[in-house]
Every structure is written in structure tokens, then in C-alpha cells.
Amino acid sequence: MFSFKQFTIRQDRTAMKVCTDACVLGAYADVGTGGRVLDIGTGTGLLALMAAQRNTMAEIDAVEVDEAAFGQASENVIASPFAERVSVIHQRIQEFYLIPKEGLYDRILTNPPFYTNNLRSPDAAVNRALHTDELPFSELIEAVVRLMKPDGQWWVLLPPYETEKLTELAQNLGLKPVKRLFLKHNRQKPIFRVITGFSFGGSQTIDETLAIYETNPQNPPGGNGSRETYTAEFRALLRDFYLIF
What we know:
Elements: E1 2-3, E2 8-9, H1 20-28, E3 36-40, H2 46-54, E4 59-64, H3 67-78, E5 86-90, E6 105-110, H4 124-130, H5 137-147, E7 148-158, H6 160-172, E8 175-184, E9 191-200, E10 206-211, E11 213-215, E12 228-230, H7 232-238
Parallel strand pairs: 3-4, 3-6, 4-5, 6-7, 8-10
Antiparallel strand pairs: 1-2, 7-9, 8-9, 11-12
Subcellular location: Cytoplasm
Family: Belongs to the methyltransferase superfamily. tRNA (adenine-N(6)-)-methyltransferase family.
GO molecular function: tRNA (adenine-N6)-methyltransferase activity
């Protein structure tokens, strides 16, 4: 169980647990003001609930194909203060179509699977969450193009190499990166994740970098305390969510 300031995520029945980079995506992505938000592959419901907390007027749909994750996300939403505005839907995004009168989405959030040729787990739910077999990048992008408003934004979290592959495919369908956040464990480490915001017809990309940790000078090597502490930038970004800030 992972407790935030305004909601709690139970995750004992889901393959993908709450992780720091997903929390950064939920806190950093532009979720708009009002309108409609779509969370593709919601898992525990984390991104949908973070969006609901940040955008207090939005109607949010959270789509999940895995039955166990769908059930747990539904329970997390029902137990939250945002239950009236968040709907959890058990469906493949490739088969998810909107009722025309409801309109398209203003914002789409995705923390997609990205492994391709890595060793498989004996757990089918883990494979579904981690590997692209059931949601290849090409099909994900096609769903975004079909479901997003012309002036909407799509925010996605991936490792650097996969970001390049996704960006190339997205640009072929008219989606261009308008903002990127490069995540590092600390300032000396290489980039391990990239959060990218796409829109139709974007012309300029704004790049930013966020280090999660920094060395704590008050705890030298051999001391009893941690040598690393969260950076001020990370604390500011997650202050509305993490209980420790």
C-alpha cells in the first residue's frame, strides 16, 4: 500500500507497483484545467488519481486491460475523494471507442510497457505490464491519434532509447514533441527515463532535466544516515502528493 496526501494506492494484485518515475509523470504532465483526461493502461489508477487531484474539474477515464489491475484500480478510485469524476474501464485501448457526443480527450497520459525481446516472466500479468506484445507502440500511437482533440496533449514516460523510437513513429502521424523532462537518479548519473509531451503540429521542443537525489553533506561515508536526499526540485514537484514533504 502506498499512501499519498489525498488518496491511497493498494497494489497487492497488480504487476506494476507505484514507482518514482510514474509519480513524476503524474505530477509533471500538463493535465489541463477542466475538460476530459484519458489514462491508458491505468494499472493501480495512480496517474488517473493524480490527474484528478491536480485538475479539479476534469472528467477522467482510466482504461485497463488486465482484469486484476482493473479491479484494484476500481477499488482505489472508489476509496478516493475523486470517485465521481474518475471512471475505470476494462478494455483494450485498441478497441476503446468514444460515444461521439462525448467528444475527444484534452489530455492523454500513458506509462506504457516497453520491453520487447527481454526474458519473459512466468506471470502473465507481469508480461502484460512490461512487454509491448499486447500494446505495440504503433497501436498505442494510433489510439492516441484517434482519441485526442486537435489541440490536445499526450504525455508518455519511457526510457531514452524507446522514447526515440516512439517519437519517430509519432511524428509520422503528425504528433510532435513539445516538451521533454529528462530524469536522472542524480546529476552525475545518465538519463534513465524521459517524459515527453506530444501535440499535433508542435514546432519547438522545450527540454528540462530533473535529478531525483543529491548527496547529503550532513551524512558522510560511514555515517548512520543516508548519503542521498531528495533534491529541492523533486520535493517541490511532489510536495502536493508525498506525505514526507
